[in-house]
Amino acid sequence: MTGLEEVRLARAAWSRLVEPGDVVAGALVASLGPVEALAWLRSVAAEGAAGAPVAAGGLDGLVGTPASRRRLGVAVGRWAPRLATVDPARELRRVDALGGAVLIPEGPGWPGRVGDLGPSGPMCLWVRGRTDLDALTAPSVALVGARASTAYGDHVAGELAAGLSTAGWTILSGGAYGIDAMAHRGALATGGPTVAVLAGGVDRLYPAGNARLLAALVEHGAVVSEVPPGSVPSRSRFLQRNRVIAALGGATVVVEAAWRSGALSTAGHAAELLRPVGAVPGPVTSAASAGCHRLLREGRAVCVTDAAEVIELVGPAAAGPAVRTHEAREVDGLTAEGRLVLDALPLRRGGELAHLARAAGLAEHEVLAEVGHLELAGLAERDGPGWRRRRSPARGS
Amino acid sequence: MTGLEEVRLARAAWSRLVEPGDVVAGALVASLGPVEALAWLRSVAAEGAAGAPVAAGGLDGLVGTPASRRRLGVAVGRWAPRLATVDPARELRRVDALGGAVLIPEGPGWPGRVGDLGPSGPMCLWVRGRTDLDALTAPSVALVGARASTAYGDHVAGELAAGLSTAGWTILSGGAYGIDAMAHRGALATGGPTVAVLAGGVDRLYPAGNARLLAALVEHGAVVSEVPPGSVPSRSRFLQRNRVIAALGGATVVVEAAWRSGALSTAGHAAELLRPVGAVPGPVTSAASAGCHRLLREGRAVCVTDAAEVIELVGPAAAGPAVRTHEAREVDGLTAEGRLVLDALPLRRGGELAHLARAAGLAEHEVLAEVGHLELAGLAERDGPGWRRRRSPARGS
């Protein structure tokens, strides 16, 4: 067994021993290394010292104070009960049989930006499908939202995903019903890759109703989890899963979310990680958009309405040339005086200079100058001794 | 004629002589006083000096430099052509015959906050209906938006206006078709007062299709304009009118607006006047909401979805106690450990301590403590030698 494989086994074991987001475990592994930390845990647990103060070489920085020493003792008490059931080699064989792999920070394919999570980051990532998760998610956007989505939200999620996918962005989501599913489908529809981060093990394509969709992701992207095969998707794992989506994505966009929604926690994690957060507005009469409006109202998200605006959100540099062109109107180029004269011009019979000056509230020499500009712009024409309007553009109020 | 009536006549004359927003006229009137400024203009015009350099006592501050002297000369050239047609006494009789009045900063009923416009502010306000415009608009919100509104926008405008009106706020708008009309109607439906600021004279209830609605405003509020009776609502007057709406309102809320919309200029004026600006989101698939989303996206408006949020926007103090109550869920009070144990509890047959500790990833003594809290919270119950879940609330992801 190479050093790398030993590390992989140790990290796989740690992902079984601890619940996602365990910062004490994360700090311990970062401090001692995965293999050494596991050996240390085994030795401490063998002493039956759960809950008791612990000490070990290399832990000085971690347990420098009595409080942190107690904290580590409590943590050991949490991890130890699972030691007996840990069998990482068997679990690696299991994911291997599924055509998957375990990615680790020390090995290839690891998406470095997950490191932004610090000690609360995943011990490893169990992956089915493409294992070059670094390349796969290098330009990626997380599209998340309500499971109880509306037809409007489904439509927008699909459109955004298709637009972003076409522009070369990988779509990340959680594989759930509703917005998540539509985001994955929108990407698949354009032939683009898409990645689902699951709350349970990658052996169970949960929820069952999305099993076929998730199987398609295994073919055209990846299904990822930080918990080992066989793990159930519990409530706290759903919440912790959201931080992995937020960390993997270059930005997180909430398409539809109720006032209380897990999607808002993903947005919160993204903001903590200094990732841009977008929210898609919707009808104020729709409860499914209340969470998006909440994010906008509280200034925690930028309003995004199409793929171009999402790309602008992820990085202005990536947006390239003008994302949206609005037709310029002829009158836009006019001075204030030009507008006054334009307003003063009769539509039918030409108005004489003195009349135009009174109507516009300008001096006659000013009217003369402006009417010349308006003639050049095709907005005025001579009529007898005066001037009249020429084919007016739509009037705006 | 009292001094006040002389000032009123002079300001009425100025409102005929100059186009709305003429800062040179505003500065001149502020500097000399309306009566003296008018007398000065008459004397200068009589000398036929339009366009030529001018000088007069009391103007030193205004025309201290050659450039400002030239500027005033140009302005005189603009105002002079209209001098011959000015007859303020006749116009005052005209608005009096309509049951209206002319409000001036020096007299009663003047809404002081319009003074925030400085020299670009109105010379006077021609009013039909209630003439105590100060009291009428003291707590007021401007609801503005697209003429080409959708059924969604109409609904929201009506709901917002009714809600704000019920809470004691006067609804301001522009009397136009679409959102404006629905805002006025929503206020009238609750018996609340509402004020329309018109771009043309108050003698013409424009647009014609809203004549009955505007007549109802004369009965239950007011119709206001800074231009004298007989004035046509030109494009530039529409744009200038928007600054009066923005200045009169305690806040401006855009309900629906296309990407280019006059409502956005009202929002811009409100922002310049340091008034809060709100925007109502809508479907991203609706062009009628694109302007609102633009305001939100550019951080120029706060997202508002109901009357309570508008009131919060105008002033947190005015909002009173909690504007919105969201039901608290039992699980919200739990610690992270409590949630882990809750997740670990079986639904049917009780799980024993060792099992729960492994499932939750916690030490047994922690599970024991947490399961006690869960029992107290009614979320767990004993079952044989272990514990199980009690009536789970809806699971949130």
TrEMBL record, chains A, B:
Q: What is this protein called?
A: DNA-processing protein DprA
Q: Which gene encodes it?
A: dprA
An individual GO BP term = DNA-mediated transformation
Pfam families xref list: DNA_processg_A
Segments forming domain Smf/DprA SLOG = 103-313
Organism whose genome encodes this protein: Actinotalea soli
Q: Into which family does the record put it?
A: Belongs to the DprA/Smf family.
* Domain of life, per lineage: Bacteria
